[in-house]
Structure formats: structure tokens, C-alpha cells
Design a protein that fits this description.
Helix content: 40-55%
Distance between the termini: 52 Å
Strand content: 5-15%
Shape: globular
Low-confidence stretches: none
Number of helices: 3
Strand order of the largest sheet: 1-2
Length: about 110
């Protein structure tokens, strides 16, 4: 029991120090002609692809925010390419220092 607890604490601490996001922080909606099963399959595939791309990237992410930004950009590109509706802020520049966020519109492919 002590070994399991030690392992869980180690995993938790390593994960807390990680800059790799656990998933996207953006809302993506199914495309017009996509059913939920297609959307779910595309979502899982895009998550896997983006995670692998970031993990294989030679650039080190300096912070969780930078990691999340890279993840979200890759995820949005992947889901848009598969025909789903993705968010498009009024300004296409991503600025993590922004206090308030502009209204979000959904881009349809």
C-alpha cells in the first residue's frame, strides 16, 4: 500500500511540474454534416496528434500557458481540417496577457 501511495504522489508531482496540457481549452462544435460519433473520433485523433507533436517538438515550453497555447492552436487546426466548427476570436493574435477576452465567433468550414 505504501508503494502505491508513493508512486501516486510521484506521478502527481511530476504532472504538476509538466508544461504539457491535459487537453484543449477551446470549445469546438461538430461540423454541419458530422454526427456525434464522427466528432468524437476526430476529437480523440486530434488530441493524440497534437500531444504527439508537442511531445516530439524540439522546443522546450517555458510555461503551462505556452504549452496550452501550442496545444490549442494545433487542436483547432486539426479539428477545422476535419470539417468542424472552431472558435475565431475577433483578433486572430493569441495574447495570454490579455485581461479580457474578445467575443468568440465560430468558424464553419
Amino acid at each position: 500500500m505504501l508503494q502505491i501511495l508513493t508512486t501516486l504522489i510521484s506521478v502527481f508531482l511530476l504532472n504538476a511540474c509538466s508544461t504539457m496540457p491535459s487537453g484543449p481549452s477551446v470549445l469546438v462544435l461538430p461540423g454541419t454534416d458530422k454526427n456525434f460519433e464522427q466528432f468524437r473520433n476526430d476529437d480523440l485523433r486530434c488530441r493524440q496528434l497534437v500531444h504527439a507533436d508537442i511531445a516530439a517538438s524540439e522546443q522546450d515550453l517555458d510555461s503551462k500557458e505556452e504549452g496550452q497555447q501550442s496545444y490549442d492552436i494545433g487542436y483547432i487546426q486539426c479539428m477545422y481540417s476535419k470539417g468542424h466548427q472552431v472558435p475565431a476570436p475577433e483578433e486572430l493574435m493569441y495574447d495570454i496577457r490579455q485581461e479580457g477576452h474578445p467575443p468568440v465567433k465560430m468558424l464553419k468550414p
